[in-house]
Design brief:
Rossmann fold, alpha/beta, Alpha-Beta Plaits, globular, about 35% helix, 5-stranded antiparallel beta sheet, 2 domains, about 25% strand
Length: about 350
């Protein structure tokens, strides 16, 4: 099956109207005995998007938003209730073996390693499952241990590793067979800042390699997502609420920004006088050699230009800083909208939340 084209690029992952509802366990038995039970959990609702070849794509949302369920569906660990997922042109249900061969999965809470086996023994076991020869497995494992700074721990039992090193083991296993698609669920979780920075650098190199790896990344570290991802999808209560480049998401959901100016050659009193009639309620203070001015403006208006012209008439503008919106602002916007919608729908039959 040929892969889908998007903007002239092949789509490595295509998610088409995917929904997932987890039924109530023993629902008929509970009904027979007139037992109360919760409503079925609607984890995903008609989710659709594509991830292009060689792209680092971010998926952000709060706990319970549906990120892990969607990742498991792509990895063929869970089947969708409706809709379809294709990976490298293969359907995740009909061609699950080919999809699994195309994917490297690193989960945030890894439980499938053998705790009594060493780091090297664990990776050897999974390398042979991937079909690597004994010689090829030894060579690839040596490369990954050096790459992820695990070489000194190769003979350490998995159960004795720190949480951060266990996370690095999950990444190492995901890379064993050099898959074209990587699903990374919080790959820098529990890592120290230096190790996290090196892991981000590795992810970037993989996407720029030849052939490039496609990365679907979920993370609660929004600064990390902004640094790495070309596009980001915001998921809330099982639905994709927005999808765009991080910069565009920020600009579309931040109506105001706070501006801070440092102006030389002016006292605070004189700066306030120059801004009278230009800026309503400016924050003005005096520091050695400069007046500090702060104010809030609507994004896209001409208030900053007018303030700069007024201050430059008698002073010298040394610096200008604007407090940028973050992906957290975007995420919180949609969370507030969903909470308001949920309050407005009070009395309707509950549909559950994502997991």
């Amino acid at each position: 099956m040929p892969s889908v084209k998007e903007n002239g690029l092949d789509a490595a992952i295509t998610i088409d109207c995917v929904s997932k509802t987890y039924p109530v366990p023993l629902a008929r038995t509970r009904q027979l005995f007139r037992m109360r039970s919760a409503a079925p959990v609607e984890a995903l609702r008609e989710v659709s998007f594509d991830v292009r070849e060689g792209e680092i794509f971010g998926l952000i949302g709060r706990n319970g938003a549906g990120k892990t369920t969607l990742t498991k569906i792509i990895a063929t660990l869970v089947q969708p209730t409706s809709g379809a997922v294709t990976v490298c042109g293969f359907d995740s249900v009909r061609d699950e073996e080919r999809v699994r061969a195309s994917i490297g999965l690193a989960g945030a809470e890894e439980r499938s390693f053998y705790w009594r086996l060493t780091v090297e023994q664990n990776l050897t076991f999974f390398a042979r499952l991937y079909g690597l020869s004994a010689r090829g497995a030894r060579r690839r494992i040596a490369e990954l241990l050096e790459l992820l700074e695990l070489a000194s721990l190769r003979r350490r039992r998995f159960g004795e590793l720190s949480t951060g090193n266990k996370q690095r083991m999950a990444v190492a296993r995901a890379l064993l067979n050099s898959p074209p698609v990587l699903l990374l669920d919080e790959p820098t979780r529990s890592l120290d800042p230096v190790a996290a920075a090196r892991t981000r650098e590795l992810i970037g190199r993989l996407a720029r390699s030849t052939p490039p790896a496609t990365v679907l990344l979920t993370s609660h570290n929004l600064a990390e997502v902004e640094e790495l991802c070309e596009r980001v999808a915001v998921i809330s209560r099982g639905r994709i609420r927005a999808l765009d480049a991080p910069r565009r998401l920020r600009s579309a959901h931040r109506q105001q920004e706070h501006v801070r100016l440092a102006v030389g050659g002016l006292s605070a009193e004189r700066a306030a006088a120059l801004l009278r009639g230009v800026v309503a309620r400016p924050e003005v203070s005096e520091q050695p050699g400069a007046a500090r001015v702060g104010f809030t403006r609507e994004v896209g208006d001409d208030l900053l230009d007018r303030a700069l012209r007024a201050l430059a008439a008698e002073g010298r503008v040394i610096s200008c800083e604007a407090e940028r919106a973050t992906l957290l602002d975007v995420l919180e916007t949609f969370e507030r909208e969903d909470e308001a919608a949920g309050a407005g729908a009070e009395g309707e039959e509950p549909k559950g939340v994502g997991v």
